[in-house]
Amino acid sequence: MRASVTTFVFLLISLNVSYLSGQEKESIRIEQITPQLSDGHLTVSAVFQNLFSNKIVGTIQSGLPAIIQIEIQLLEKGGKQVARQQTARTISYNIWEERYVIHEDTAVVFTDFEKAKEFSSRLENAAVVARNKLKDEVTYYLQIQVGIIPISASQSEKVTDWLLDPNQTEERLASEERASGFKLNLNNLISFFVGGKKKSQYNSEWFSSKVFRIGDLEREK
């Protein structure tokens, strides 16, 4: 009897460790954060790992879109924030035409989901701040956080229409919010769709680049 209890306890511990390990593997990570200088701006590239959970994949393949929100901040070595940028892209699946559409500034179409995931999981040369606003003698580093938000059927059309129209004004947003009760505000997308305990499930932690100086980046060009 004692041996059976011991075996049962061991199995429970093993299952719990496996479960926790699985959770750790599924956490969103950001790798290869690379600062560069391009067209008079400090830009950044990065790779997102584990962005698409099984639930997110299921949502997309059912025909509902998801929003990927990327937040970038530039800080001095001491922690002072210099600049902050936020960008969003959508990924959706047309079940009739069997194609995936990723939309940010322009639309990119894929017929293979793995290629769509790979494309969506990269950030390439995103502008952070103009070069002339940075000081040569200061040491900087970049931080990035990424989140993905599954959108319900009732929210889908409004979000997609809004993201396709980048010329929204504060007045127009306020008017739409009063009329529909739907807050179309990029800064609040994650908090609107994913609040409370769910937020950590869909967002990465902040990940940091190596420290750098602007002069070093100029020499690398």
The fraction of residues in strands falls at: 25-35%
Largest sheet: 6 strands, antiparallel
State the helical fraction. 25-40%
The secondary-structure element order is HEEHEEEEHEEHHHHEH
Low-confidence runs of at least 5 consecutive residues: 1-24, 168-191, 194-198
How would you explain this protein's 3D organization?
The chain has 221 residues and is of the alpha+beta class. It has one domain. It is 36% helix and 34% strand. The strands form two sheets. It has a six-stranded antiparallel sheet. Strands 1-2-7 form a three-stranded antiparallel sheet. The longest helix has 25 residues, at 2-26. The radius of gyration is 21 Å and the shape is elongated. Mean pLDDT is 77; it is low at 1-24, 168-191 and 194-198.
Brief write-up:
The protein has helices at residues 2-26, 54-61, 113-120, 153-163, 170-180, 189-193, 199-202, 214-220; strands at 29-38, 41-49, 66-76, 81-94, 99-103, 107-110, 122-130, 140-150, 207-208. It is built from eight helices and nine strands. It has one domain (26-220).
